[in-house]
Design brief:
By secondary structure, the protein is an alpha/beta fold. The chain has 2 domains: 1-72, no CATH class; 76-165, Aspartate Aminotransferase, domain 2, CATH 3.40.640. Helix content is 34%, strand content 9%. The protein contains 6 helices and 3 strands. It has helices at 3-10, 52-64, 76-84, 101-112, 124-130, 153-160, and strands spanning 91-96, 116-121, 137-139. Strands 2-1-3 form a 3-stranded parallel β-sheet. The longest helix is centred in the middle third of the chain and has 13 residues, at 52-64. The radius of gyration is 21 Å and the shape is elongated. 8% of the residues are buried.
């Protein structure tokens, strides 16, 4: 880990609690937040939509990745569903067959509803063979669950990013 990252991680949340002046930001477990007056919000309404602790995490993740923002979700499945919202109906997806059960059940439901079309690979070679010019999305959980199969993500990403001239 480089020194910049070490320093950034060591200082996550430091000197951000303006309300109390605490040097290290507290963990906010509240589910609802008081508003200064009717119709005015502090930006925090319900924990399931936003809370100060999650905002600190998102700022840290954005900084680590040199991004403008980051988004933390309450679960891996929430992240998957959110990520797939950007893809159009009819998108063709190549995925590893060995998936977390929740992922597979949600994928199966999406395919039954006609939202996406899935092709599944049992191993890295099959995945590389399945990726072609008609592939819109490549989905990998590596290592897989429960078989712990490892995929070379860089190799698969390179194949997927070759574009129409694959």
């Amino acid at each position: 880990m480089d020194k910049r990252l070490d320093t950034l991680l060591a200082q996550v949340g430091i000197r951000q609690d303006e309300a109390t002046g605490a040097l290290v930001g507290p963990l906010h477990f509240s589910t609802t937040y008081q508003h200064p007056e009717y119709g005015k919000s502090t930006g925090f309404d319900y924990t399931r939509t936003k809370n100060p602790t999650r905002a600190t995490l998102e700022e840290a993740l954005a900084s680590i990745e040199s991004g403008q923002f980051a988004l933390a979700t309450s679960s891996g499945m929430a992240a998957i569903v959110l990520a797939f919202e950007v893809f159009p109906v009819g998108a063709k997806i190549v995925a590893s067959r060995d998936l977390y059960g929740g992922s597979f059940r949600w994928f199966d439901e999406q395919e039954k509803e006609g939202r996406f079309s899935f092709s599944y690979a049992n191993n890295e070679k099959e995945m590389l063979d399945l990726i072609d010019e008609s592939t819109d999305i490549v989905y990998i959980e590596s290592p897989t669950n429960p078989m712990m199969i490892k995929y070379n993500i860089e190799k698969i990403a390179n194949k997927a990013c070759q574009g129409p001239s694959k």
